Amino acid sequence: MKEELFVSGRNIPHIDPYLHLWTWEIPLYLFLGGLAAGILFFAGYFYVMHKERDMKATIKWAPMLVPFILVIGLGALFLDLHHKLYFWRLYTIIRFQSPMSWGAWVLMAITPLSIVWAASYLKEVFPKWKWPFAWLDTFEAFVIKYRKAMAWIMMILSVILGVYTGILLSAFNARPLWNTSILGPLFLVSGFSTGLAAIIWMSKSKYERKVLTRIDLIFIFVELFFIIHMIMGFQAGSEAAHEAAKLFLGGEFTVTFWVFVVLLGLAFPATLEIFELRGYHVPVWIPSFLILLGGLIFRFVILEAGQITRYLY
Amino acid sequence: MRYAMAVDTKKCVGCGDCVVACQTENNVPHGYCRDWIVENVAGTYPKLEIELRSERCNHCENAPCVRCCPTGASHIVDGGIVLVTHDECIGCGACIESCPYDARYPHPEGYVDKCTFCVHRVTDGENPACVDVCPTHCLHFGDLDDPNSDVSKILKNRKWKVLAPEAGTKPQLYFLT
Amino acid sequence: MKTRRDFIKISAAGVGAAAIGLHALSWDSVTAQFVADGDTSPVSDEELTNYPTFCEVCFWKCAGFTYVDKKGNIRKIIGNKDDPHSNGRFCPRGTGGVGMYWDEDRLQTPLIRETKADGTQYFRKASWDEALNLVAEKMNKLRLEHGPECLALFSHGTGGKHFSHLVKAYGSPNITAPSFAQCRGPREVAFTATYGEDVMSPERTDIRDTKCLVLIGSHIGENMHNGQIQEMSEAIDQGATIITVDPRFSTAASKSKYWLPIKPATDIALLLAWMHVIIYEDLYDKAYVEKYTFGFKELKEHVKNMTPEWAYGITTIDPNVIRKTAREMAAASPAVLVHPGRHVTWYGDDTQRSRAIAIVNALLGSWGRRGGFYNPEKVHLPKYPAPPYPKPKRSWRDAYPPGKYKLVTEVLSTGICDASIPNADLDCHLRGWIVYGTNLMASLPDQKKTLEAISHLDFLVVIDTMPMDIVQLADVVLPECTYLERYDPIRTSPHREPYIALRMPAAEPKHETKPGWWIAKELAKRLGLGDYFNYENYEDVLDWQLKKVGSSLEEMKRIGVKKFNREFDDLYFLQNLEDFEFNTNTGKIELYSTELEMEGYDPMPKYTHHEEPADGYYRLNYGRAPMHTFSRTSNNHNLWDLMKENSVWINPKVAKLWDIENGQYIWLKNQDGIVTDFPVKARVTERIRWDSVYLVHGFGHTDKKLTRAYGHGASDSKLVSKIHMDPIMGGTGMRGNFVTFLKEKPGKEVNA
Ligand SMILES: Nc1nc2c(c(=O)[nH]1)N[C@H]1C(S)=C(S)[C@@H](COP(=O)(O)OP(=O)(O)OC[C@H]3O[C@@H](n4cnc5c(=O)[nH]c(N)nc54)[C@H](O)[C@@H]3O)O[C@H]1N2
Ligand SMILES: Nc1nc2c(c(=O)[nH]1)N[C@H]1C(S)=C(S)[C@@H](COP(=O)(O)OP(=O)(O)OC[C@H]3O[C@@H](n4cnc5c(=O)[nH]c(N)nc54)[C@H](O)[C@@H]3O)O[C@H]1N2
Ligand code: SF4
Ligand code: SF4
Ligand code: SF4
Ligand code: SF4
Ligand code: SF4
Ligand SMILES: [Mo]
After folding, report:
1. What are phi and psi for residue C258, nearest 5 degrees?
2. Are the CB atoms for C520 and C166 separated by under 8 Å?
3. pLDDT tens by residue, A140-174
4. Out of B23, B108, B124, whose CB is closest to C30?
5. A277: buried, middle or exposed (CB in 10 Å: 19+, 13-18, 0-12)?
6. Label partner for A44 (CA 20 to 30 A): which of A222, B113, C41, C722?
7. Beta bridge partners of C616
8. Homologous superfamily in CATH for domain A25-308
9. Cβ distance C44 to B124 under 8 Å?
10. Nearest by CB to A86, which of B87, B96, B102?
11. How far apart are CA C220 and CA C252, in angstroms?
12. Are C276 and C319 in contact (CB under 8 A)?
């Protein structure tokens, strides 16, 4: 028999018997970040592709939500900080080796951008909208003129944001479950997929939905591929990685992960989307809702499971 | 200069004195600790073995906690001691997540805290509090660059290991086996 | 088993979606809590003021310094490097002694028991004057009506000296401590019978210089007596062989070259077999045995058939191992030390087991030799002038027929209990108790008997620092300040060289607590015994005494510890076979004890079989955890952090049989149907045998006023209801109790 115990009674809140320091704020923050990145990326992309007229939900409607999404996300991050009064310290320095640092900076850049973008469409979406000050109208005109440049910046920043949501975790190689370079692309793809799902849900145009659904299917398949790849990577890895994978292969998170994330959050909505593309009638909100929910659960699972895993010594 | 500590698992009795001494020396709040004792029992009665380890921050040479800190609150000072500046720390917890040894803890006042190698004593030329209190003399501290330091000498004469070397952190807490 | 290696298996318990957000729900704000006020960052020693003290967390009495910050807060206690008890290093309990001072649950004011109209009783806060007057009134009445001999004092710890002085002045000889009949008694009697001298405290064991250390049960490393653990560590460095005989895989066993996992209660057989090997393989120290011992021939004859093979059948120890270890000891002789142990009241034949240990040492020639037992010396401080004590006419011994416990050398705590229960042969039972610094409910076996004795008392006065179990039973509670807030008698204990140490206050007494010397003096005044306490302040006494030995209070306040030269250069007084007359009947080391024979006991130890657990029952083994002292530290926040409760150690085979999981809370019931008050956590571990379970002593407090300790763990004391009395000296063998497991919370009726 092997027995291991802390004989000094160590029992630190949030750390023992296993790490659970990050609870709901960080996964929510990561989910919302990915979602916002997805929406902004496609807004930018289709704007640059001159689809402003055909893809209203993508370019105009969905981005209206992004400032709120980002602010909620940032709020969650803020809530997670235990030394809140010192929050401003984040913005006194850029530390490139710290994903937390550049993530905070990217958000600092992308949030105002998303506000400006959304504001520039306010009048189009809500025809009765009036700016309270005249200078805002001047500013609006100026912004509209530079929409293309903004679209490009948005695309770049949203890819960074999307990747960041994964890299934030994969940078922690202390947690074998997160210690995989696939987490960056995986969270990027997953974030974009949730973005697409949100837009599809909002879209009233069949054409727009079709275009987006096709893209989404690709993303879902790539995501599934990454997931399998990730698990196989763990299986082939060190003992700690092996143990980490076990969490999903018979361990605590097996059901949550395979049923809620993979089946209900990816495979089932993908099937529904295929049916829809084939012309069957499927209520739009069902696949979208499932993808969004799956994406959210996915981040919770990775966060919680990841914190349990550790080096074995 | 490269400070390091060696822990003699053969002599440690797991009494926890190093933990209490740290608590009173550094005012560690009740319920938290900067060092702790792990007991590993292996075998079947009566063929048994015990390994006792007094663990704390490893003051890693390649410290992930410092790398991932967004504000620079976690930093490395002379002698390789890894420290946290409390009023630069936002309490984001990234460093806690990044430490393979669970050596850091969220201080109830919000910042993150951990073993400092008793830098306030070490700079005065004294040993850390835990080293000075250990009744079995099983903790050895000193400068690895100085071949005559207590820690250099014992590491030369004894077999040792570090914890989770595969994490690549280059820990500076050595366990004599 | 919960190990990090198995983290997945444990967490697998909660399968499924439920896991999601579980922690999200239990999220609590870390920032909501605050640490105690004051400076929270570490400060360098230069910014602290230090005051000498010696530790009172156990009886090793290490000297050190209490460090106080600018605001007057006690921050830490650090050992004094000049002190041979600590060598500058306190044990965890001593380091955590600050927790005694800071404990919010401390007794704060004197308390007097009152009865409400409806019969319920409660403690009323009282002024010192009122409380002291009441105690004095009761003591005066007792003296007048029944004679002063009807008072008893239980006292354990340094401050108790003030009260034994008071009680002797009052006229009673009934002064006792649980450190004899529940602790060292059998050892002291056995060694005195053998060598004419006892082992003393701190033990005169030369662990530092030994080449072979043999531990019979004595679990150094868990038993954290500082000097011994430090010297054992030194001995390991010097390459000494350690042989540990213990049914449990103790920490010391894990450091040993040989661990002999003996069947409990069979040590005498092993010791006799060792004697057999040592004698019949001619391994004994012939010159030494020849010159100093009496009865070798008889002993040789006595152990003739006690071969390792014979012992194997009893102890389950492989005969080859018995031979090998005997040879290993002999090879190291005379620098070999078969440790006499300290808490030796195990099975009722403990004096005889201690005798066997003394004899093995004698055969190996270790008494008076380097690496064996040295000859300690101590400074004799003159007594502060006081009138002679009155001569008592009766004593607790009247409770027993004359032939009982003939070799008892100190007052039996359990004897005081017996003498407090009215009995036809007693012309007067003891009617008043003063209890200083001993938690009798945890320290004495057979709680029922203790409670019965207390029920016959006219009054019970308790002087303590904490609301311990015994305090619940008091009529008057007098709160003493902790050792960090008071002067006490100078520590002068025997050691290789004579040393003295000073304890002085590092802070004002908290709340309305008072130092023991003040309480004793105030009581004396009210009893008309003021002459015995002829000083204003205890500092006067200390200064007077210190000046007599060439120091002063002023000097001691600076240095804390002072070393003196030995009077005689005889640390290892038998090293070169010097002539020596032992203080025994024969003037020799008595392998064959004439004294025991005269009193009608076996002159040489014999193995006797002890009762074994019935089916489904397990022997209750108990001992120490390094971070706690008995019951006194269990509420100390610094130490509570290290260990909040005890657990019951169960062998995995037994656990499987009972389907008990590691970490599961269960209840224990003993052979007399007594059940633990609280559930205790099972620790499923290979470190314990399948025929016994193990508890760390001192847990399971029943007073809710101990906010941390209350309800945590199981009290071994409660389960020790059966006593195996040592017929020679009245020691209370406590390891002959058996327990079984209850997995469900027991109903009221079983708990009766
Ligand atoms: N941390 C700490 N240290 C202390 C104290 C404390 O409270 N806390 N108290 C101090 C005091 S006053 C005393 S008296 C000492 C007591 O300390 P010791 O003298 O060492 O105590 P024992 O009860 O003799 O030893 C307990 C050991 O005996 C073993 N044992 C049980 N039954 C048998 C048996 O049949 N045969 C053999 N060979 N071994 C057996 C147990 O498994 C356990 O390991 O500790 C002192 N040191
Ligand atoms: N079941 C069982 N019984 C045992 C033992 C065992 O292992 N198991 N061990 C036995 C042994 S070896 C011994 S030596 C005895 C020890 O027995 P005790 O010395 O009675 O041990 P404690 O239970 O620690 O009780 C100490 C009491 O003193 C109080 N106290 C502490 N400091 C001070 C102070 O400065 N002033 C005053 N006035 N009071 C103070 C504490 O609050 C506590 O109430 O127990 C014996 N009884
Ligand atoms: S003080 Fe020393 S012996 Fe005690 S637990 Fe710490 S390292 Fe081990
Ligand atoms: S042990 Fe942990 S906290 Fe200490 S330096 Fe290494 S990674 Fe950082
Ligand atoms: S919690 Fe503090 S020290 Fe740790 S990474 Fe965040 S800011 Fe840095
Ligand atoms: S070195 Fe100092 S801070 Fe670190 S564990 Fe030891 S006592 Fe604590
Ligand atoms: S051994 Fe520990 S508890 Fe006992 S007197 Fe020394 S420091 Fe205090
Ligand atoms: Mo004792």
Report:
1. -120, 125
2. yes
3. 999 999 999 999 999 999 999 999 999 999 999 89
4. B108
5. middle
6. A222
7. none
8. Formate dehydrogenase/DMSO reductase domain (1.20.1630.10)
9. yes
10. B87
11. 6
12. no
Q: How far is the CA of B169 from the centre of ligand 7 (A)?
A: 38
Of C2, C19, C28, the CB nearest to A252: C19
The amino acid at residue A158 is S
pLDDT at C403: 83
Characterize C152-166 residue by residue with b for buried, 16 or more Cβ atoms within 10 angstroms of its Cβ, and e for exposed.
Answer: bbbbbbbbbbbbbbb
- Both tokens assigned to A175: 């947690």
Ligand 2 pocket check for C179: Cβ under 6 Å: yes
**Residue C29 CA: distances (Å) to CA of A10, A86, C716:** 20, 17, 38
Per-residue model confidence as pLDDT tens digits over C205-242: 999 999 999 999 999 999 999 999 999 999 999 999 99
Distance B55 CA to ligand 4 centre (A): 11
Question: What is the rounded CA–CA span in Å between residue C452 and residue B158?
Answer: 59
Residue nearest to atom 12 of ligand 2 (CA): C183
Structure tokens at C272: 């006799």
Q: Do C90 and B134 touch (CB under 8 A)?
A: no
Instruction: For C247, list phi and psi in degrees, rounded to 5.
Output: -65, -20
Residues C63, C78: Cα–Cα separation, whole Å: 9
* pLDDT tens, position by position, C286-333: 999 999 999 999 999 999 999 999 999 999 999 999 999 999 999 999
pLDDT tens digits, one per residue of C373-390: 999 999 999 999 999 999
Cα distance from C715 to chain B (closest Cα, Å)? 21
The one-letter code for the residue type at C137 is E
Residues 6+ apart with CB under 8 A from C48: C67, C68, C69, C75
Distance of alpha carbon B112 from alpha carbon B105, whole angstroms? 6
Return d(Cα A259, Cα A88) in angstroms, integer: 41
Of A10, B125, B21, whose CA–CA distance to C90 is shortest? B21
Neighbours of ion ligand 8 (CB under 5 A): C 183, 343
Determine the atom of ligand 7 nearest the C-alpha atom of C91: 2
Q: How far apart are CA C515 and CA C505, in angstroms?
A: 10
Please name every residue paired with C155 in a beta bridge, in sequence order, or none if there are none.
C436
Residues of A with CB below 8 A from C637's CB? none
The predicted model scores a pTM of: 0.94
In Å, how far from its chain's centre is CA B14?
15
Which tokens go with C262?
């003996």
Closest CA to A199 of A41, A27, A50: A41
Beta bridge partners of C367: C373
Domains of chain C, start order: 183-376+585-594 (3.40.228.10), 618-751 (2.40.40.20)
Q: What is the DSSP string of C383-440?
A: PPP-PPPPPPS--GGGGS-TTTTTT--S--HHHHHHHHS--TT-SS---EEEEES--H
Can you say whether residue A309 is alpha, beta or left, with left for phi > 0 and alpha for psi between -120 and 50 degrees?
A: beta
Q: Does C8 touch chain A (CB under 8 A)?
A: yes
**Distance between CA atoms of residues C185 and C196, nearest Å:** 15
CA angle C455, C457, C463 (to 5 degrees): 105
Mean pLDDT of B69-98: 96
C710 φ/ψ angles, rounded to the nearest 5 degrees = -55, 130
Using the structure block, give the residue that is written with the tokens 């659960």.
A297
Pocket test for ligand 6, best of B117, B124, B150 (most atoms within 8 A of CB): B117
d(Cα B85, Cα B113) in Å, to the nearest integer? 9
Domain B3-176: assigned CATH number:
3.30.70.20
Ligand 7 midpoint to CA C156 (Å)? 15
